[in-house]
Write a structure and sequence with these properties.
5-stranded parallel β-sheet; 464 residues; Rossmann fold; 4-stranded antiparallel β-sheet
Length: 464
Amino acid sequence: MASLLRLYNTLSRAKEVFRPIDPAHVRVYACGPTVYDAAHIGNARPLIVFDLLFRLLRHLYGAQAVTYARNVTDVDDKINARAAERGSTIRALTDETLAQFHADIRRLGILMPENVNRPGERPALVEPRATDHLGEMTALIDRLVAAGHAYVAEDHVLFDVPSMPDYGALSRRPLDEMEAGARVDVAPYKRSPLDFVLWKPSKPGEPAWPSPAGIGAPGRPGWHIECSAMAWKHLGETFDIHAGGIDLVFPHHENEVAQSRCCFGTPVMANLWLHNGFLQVEGEKMSKSLGNFVTLRAVLADWPGEVVRLAMLRTHYRQPIDWTLRGLEEAERTLGRWYGAVGDAAAGAPPERVLEPLLDDLNTPAALGELHRLEDPAALKAGANLLGLLAQSKSGRDRAAVAASGLDAAAVEALVAERAAARARRDWGESDRLRAALAALGVTVKDTRDGATTWTVSRDGERG
């Protein structure tokens, strides 16, 4: 590689040169959705950010040299409660919710297993589900009990936090602060307020599995052990990068570290920890009580997924992002200009001037700035493709926009061609009449300096 990738490591609180454990097999884990309800727009941010990381690593190390595990939590209290409300099984609920989630994130340009996995080769992208990994979870819990890092109490298995002297190294929270938070609701069977659940008995009517550690009562795993088990299964005892939202640093990721390190006797669980910043809506924290809770599906009803993706990438992933209508409108205009400039050109190699900012801790604002400065259509297409943008051809995008708007694509293209012919013979009156006719259909045309014409469909359809 001509250049080195540098990433900000939450564990060290510094940018570090990324040096994979094995350059022939780079391994990344990201915490995915809990599938009990529609994803909100904040859920889209880590998906887009770490999809970009996956794309960049594949570019640097080779398409089949990277394994990315993006988990699905399909058992927890909220899922149990929602399934009970509906009178369905948790599998039926989570299958339905996950299918909706997949449909939404495909529109964001998120790479999916069918995009990257090749028959007969090591999977590049896996989406492990918690309920498919109960065997791995109980195996980890049994090992923790045997090693003296966990104990059984009143049909629960709990991790013994004081048994790990450097617990808290990831979040760097003072011990008294962690204890104060834990004491809000301390179960009487805990040895320490900081101890957390690895396994708990199920309530009557809830899903239950055979217990680990000989506790007898059937139950289900705690949230934290799920990710330790799935990461172990698909990436090994230690791997390269663990990613997630900044809200997961404590307690979720801190507890993952404790479980995995104490189980395997390793100095780290992952060498690098990446965390994306919070999302606000129009300057305020997103909250149902404030009435600004926005689902991803609702946003995608009004805006193409590519616009949403670009709007997210305009802010550096570690910074808080303010989700605004203005930001979406600016992203839409930018994509319109880029598609007009690229036309149906084929992508070349990603230009170094776009790649270099991405190698500096995924600096997407700087990379997008470089895209604005590119004049070569092939370079612009390739640079944008690396960020998961300009995935369509200009003509294909136009046809999709027309189809989504309910317009007759052939009729629109015929009017555009008629107008181009009128301009060629310098019949400006006819050209203006045809422009007005297209505008009445919701189609805006723009004439470029080189004599070409671009057109977009207005807001009423799938924006062009």
